[in-house]
Design goal:
Elements: E1 9-11, H1 25-32, H2 48-51, H3 69-76, E2 83-94, H4 101-109, E3 135-138, H5 148-172, E4 176-188, E5 195-212, H6 219-230, E6 240-242, E7 247-252, E8 257-262, E9 267-289, E10 292-313, H7 320-327, E11 333-347, E12 351-358, E13 364-366, H8 378-386, E14 389-391, E15 395-403, E16 409-416, E17 420-421, E18 427-428, E19 430-437, E20 446-454, E21 461-469, E22 473-480, E23 483-486, E24 489-492, E25 494-504
Parallel strand pairs: 1-5
Antiparallel strand pairs: 2-4, 2-25, 3-8, 4-5, 5-9, 6-7, 7-8, 9-10, 10-11, 11-12, 12-15, 13-14, 15-16, 16-19, 17-18, 19-20, 20-21, 21-22, 22-25, 23-24
Helix pairs in contact: 5-6
């Protein structure tokens, strides 16, 4: 199990892009205080955090990486019983260099016009009726000698500033925190001539991201609207002046000040899942040859999910921190599904090759509906309707390992052929390289080092190191290679750690 939550802005239909950086620590702490998140498929706990999801020979946790691995391990032990469990917990954080993230969000959303009160657009703990009328542009014209072109340029400059703020959030306003727990059990027996695996885990994920729609601003239309306004008798001039499709000016007659507000459907969307997973697998040998042996296996996973979703227009946000606090208490909708994994391993004397397909049947789950009444943008409405459905993507994983004669030294390669998307919309496609030394000594620890890179989504790279002490205690840490600056201190862009124990009998 693992957990993830983050904030970023993307345009409708835009794929999840590589962030320039990941998010403020405050967001990570907020998420950690709420749900745990992400699944073991994306950031595996235990020794697999460093070694990757490969059949590395590290006792129980190794045989849970490929549906065919338990039978291969049983055969390697010359049909001696293979029984055991490995209970692991893990946590991680990715963050970026936008400091005071909530204040940053509030400064951006303050420019947006609230929904009509009767449309129910206000999010939890928000008071859009108390929002200011927009961004204060000051006195951008002289009533006695107005320069219309200068006024248009002042409006255009502020629109460009707001567009840049959205871009900054999309590139840098990203934060993710996850927690993990996993408890696989392996039972190797003569029953049906193979090995059985069982497991139970709980994981959740939470995410908030910005859905940015383009700010429509036409300089020619704005100039025409301002000229018409100045040509109107001062006593008849309206205080509300639409100058473009999405731009509304509010003129304050007493001070001659001008407020700019943006009227579009840019929004913050929150999604969360909580999952209880039960799994059972069976594997067996299917052929022995001079060059090696072939093993096949299959595993069924029962997913019991609770899902939540909330969408709030920028214009209805007055306190983003209060909004994120309230999001944790959202109502959840229950849904269930079954996933099928299949795997194969070819095991030679000093090497092995493997492949597996996860979620072969691609189970689907549905989030709750969101309130569409405040929305008028057809693209946004279509996105919110399609975003209700989550499909667990089918994925092909390949692995290769080499060992020395007594299998104490090993090196491993893991590669996800296809990217997959998690319930929050994050894309994952891991490439892992790792090596390890295994010992049966109570005093000399086993150790491992590894490198992993997400070839999709964030495209972050991690290096990790881990040890197994006293034959049963696993401790692993992994750090991103990229760094960022938080409060003047250079920190890794991501950090993950895991601790657990394994027992065989």
């Amino acid at each position: 199990m693992s957990a993830s939550g983050f904030i970023k802005v993307r345009r409708i239909g835009e794929p999840t892009a590589k962030p320039a950086c990941t998010a403020a620590i405050s967001i990570g702490l907020l998420i950690l205080s709420g749900l745990a998140a992400a699944g073991p498929v994306y950031q595996p706990p235990g020794a697999n955090l460093v070694l990757g999801e490969v059949t590395h020979g590290g006792r129980v946790q190794s045989v849970t990486s490929n549906p065919a691995a338990a039978a291969a391990e049983r055969a390697r032990r010359k049909d001696k019983p293979v029984r055991g469990t490995a209970i692991s917990g893990a946590a991680g954080l990715e963050y970026g260099n936008i400091q005071n993230l909530f204040d940053y969000y509030d400064s951006v959303t303050g420019a947006y016009k609230p929904s009509d009160p009767d449309e129910g657009g206000g999010g939890p703990s928000q008071l859009p009726e108390n929002k200011p009328g927009g961004i204060d542009l000051g006195q951008i014209w002289d009533n006695l000698d107005p320069d219309v072109q200068a006024a248009v340029e002042a409006v255009a400059t502020e629109v460009a500033t707001q567009t840049a703020l959205l871009l900054a959030i999309r590139e840098e306003g990203y934060g993710k925190a996850w927690l993990a727990a996993d408890a696989p059990f392996v039972v190797g027996s003569e029953y049906l001539g193979g090995a059985w695996t069982f497991g139970v885990s709980w994981y959740g994920s939470t995410k908030a991201f910005g859905l940015a729609t383009d700010i429509q601003f036409d300089k020619a239309a704005a100039r025409e609207a301002l000229e018409d306004w100045f040509n109107t008798s001062p006593i008849n001039r309206p205080t509300l002046l639409p100058v473009s499709d999405h731009i509304l000016l509010t003129v304050e007659p007493e001070s001659n000040g001008v407020l700019l507000s943006i009227d579009n459907d840019s929004s913050i969307i929150s999604k969360a899942t909580r999952t209880t997973e039960l799994n059972a697998g069976y594997s067996r040998p299917v052929g022995a040859y001079k060059s090696g042996s072939l093993f096949l296996g299959a595993e069924a996973r029962l997913y019991v999910k609770e899902l939540s979703r909330l969408s709030v227009r920028f214009g209805d946000i007055t306190d983003s921190e209060e909004l994120f606090d309230a999001i944790r208490d959202s109502d959840f909708r229950s849904d269930t599904g079954v996933g099928i994994d299949v795997g194969a391993l070819w095991v030679g004397q000093n090497f092995q090759l493997g492949a597996q397909v996860t979620n072969l049947n691609e189970p689907t789950f549905k989030f709750p509906d969101v309130n569409l009444d405040p929305y008028t943008d057809d693209d946004v409405i279509r996105f919110l309707r399609s975003d209700k459905k989550y499909k667990a993507d089918r994925q092909l994983k390949l692995e290769a390992s080499v060992f020395n004669q007594d299998r104490r030294w090993s090196a491993h390669l893991g590669y996800d052929v296809d990217p997959v998307t998690d319930p929050m919309g994050d894309r994952f496609q891991w490439l892992t390289l790792s090596a390890g030394f295994t010992t049966d000594s109570w005093w000399l620890p086993s150790w491992r080092i590894g490198y992993r890179r997400n070839l999709s989504g964030t495209e972050l790279s991690y290096v990790g190191i881990g040890v197994t002490a006293f034959k049963f205690l696993n401790i692993d840490v992994s750090s991103a290679l990229d760094t960022t600056i938080i409060d003047g201190t250079k920190l890794p862009q991501g950090l993950m750690g895991s601790i657990g124990f394994q027992i065989a009998w």
